[in-house]
Amino acid sequence: VAARPARHKIYERKPAPTLSFVIEESVLQRPFGGVDVLRGQLEHIRLIAETPHVEIQVMPTQVVDHAGADGPFTLMTPEGGEQVAYVESQGNGRVITNRESVRGFAVRYGVLRAQALSPAESVRHIEKLLQETRNTEQSQAQRLSWVKSSYSGGEGGECVEVAVSPGSVHIRDSKGTGRGFFTVSQATWSALSTTPVAVTEEH
Predict the structure, then answer these.
(1) Could you give the C-alpha distances from 26 to 39, 55, 120, 121, in angstroms and in order?
(2) Torsion angles phi and psi, residue 179, rounded to 5
(3) Tens digit of pLDDT for each residue in 116-135?
(4) Residue 171 in 3-state DSSP?
(5) 72-104 burial, b if ≥16 CB within 10 A, otherwise e?
């Protein structure tokens, strides 16, 4: 986890490196951690895509030909050095330096970029997925029973609302209920306070 902030610093370097990504559409649709986590990921990707030295392309699930069907890979060109490739599988990763092999990966990446949506089309598609995620959140929010949390502050709890579903507690800003919500386990919610939280599950 500690390495992630260090990796994010790459985007802030001067001069900034040129970065290009082709991302599977299915990755942008899979709600690991919940819909609120997915929304945050999509918002972050869209923000990064607006950076001048970063290009993000989405590979549609419906494409007939896919040059990356054999698995993901990374191409890197260090300053003053030769391009290398990196491939990874479960529990294993290796750097490839053989020029002919690296050239093959470079050609494959060129084909991938041609098969994927353009950077501009990809941003529009990410925005579409983001809106669909917000719609899903709003639909979920309407089905939940929201109450003001007693942990909103010392003056009656006027900033946070919570709703409970089996095993989870959903939290949103009471002054911006249309901006979505995030979800934590009941154990995590209880840990936010030294006083146990009494919740009643709705079925």
Answers:
(1) 14, 19, 19, 16
(2) -95, 10
(3) 999 999 999 999 999 988 88
(4) strand
(5) eeeeeeeeeeeebbebeeeeeeeeeeeeeebee
Specify the amino acid at residue 159: C
Structure tokens at 12: 């802030």
What H or E segment, with its residue span, contains residue 184? strand 182-185
Alpha carbons 35 and 40: distance in angstroms, whole number: 9
3-state secondary structure 128-163: HHHHHHHHHHHHHHHHCCCEECCCCCCCCCCCEEEE
pLDDT tens digit sequence for 5-29? 777 777 677 888 899 999 999 999 9
Which DSSP string corresponds to 4-39?
Answer: HHHHHGGGG-SSPPPEEEEEEGGGGT--TT-HHHHH
76, 77, 101, 16: which is closest to 51 by C-alpha? 16
Instruction: Please write the tens of the pLDDT for every residue from 142-186.
Output: 777 777 765 555 454 457 787 777 777 777 776 666 666 777 777
